[in-house]
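thread from #wetlab-drylab

HS: before we spend reagent money on co-crystallization trials with zinc ion, can we at least see a predicted complex? here's what I'd submit
DV: go for it
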Amino acid sequence: MNPRRIQILPSLLAADTGHLADACRRAETAGADELHLDLMDGHFVPNISFGPDIVKMARRACGLPLNVHLMFTHPDRYADRVIAAGAATVLFHVEVERPIAALLDAIRAAGVRPGLTLNPATPAEAVFPYLDRCGQILCMTVDPGYGGQPMITGALRKIAAIRRQADAIGCGDLSIMVDGGVTIATAPRCAASGADALVAGSSLYGAADMAAAIRDMRAAAAAAYDRDGAVSSGQ
Ligand code: DX5
Ligand code: ZN
């Protein structure tokens, strides 16, 4: 059993939009490791949510590292603004038709952790050419755009393949995160599949006691964690 601490990231998308600064502080007080922010452009996904100014607001409101998920067709047009706003990690989708390697390198050159996200239908191999440039891979377990959807558990199978490839090229430190439908019930399965970081929106912001919810989720995931995803292989 690997005693690795599992990172838990509340997703601000599930917070009351009338009280976003309070929601940032609530996550910090509750013991979150980082805060996840979902920025959407209404084009890559059908919904529109936050922009760079909300990242700036979160930077002022709390001390948590800001983990920014760009659901943008043109992430290269906005990465600078998100970095200037205070992001600690910038993740964009591998499905975009852009020079992906150059953007990952530009994010890293700005002193920010770069990462790629892949949708449930996208094969693991899509991120393989870029793994050495990434600090984190975000494996979506719902089609992005909306919170509160049930997890597509079949997408978890890709994690073990990504981990194997990362190890093969000497990127053993790569973080692999899951986003979409993470609850106290599904968190162990994510960790058993090899995920070391979990994004959770509805299940944490909807909890009566977020601190207890984070503690319980982290403990349940840590107990199930299998770095190689061997527990879940074949599922
Ligand atoms: C979906 C977002 C998620 C969302 C997850 O497009 O990327 O971060 O907030 O919400 P839940 O945890 O409710 O599935
Ligand atoms: Zn997200």
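DV: Residues 11, 13-14, 36, 38, 69, 142, 144-149, 179-182, 199-203 surround D-xylitol-5-phosphate (ligand 1) (CB under 6 Å).
HS: ok that's useful, forwarding to the group
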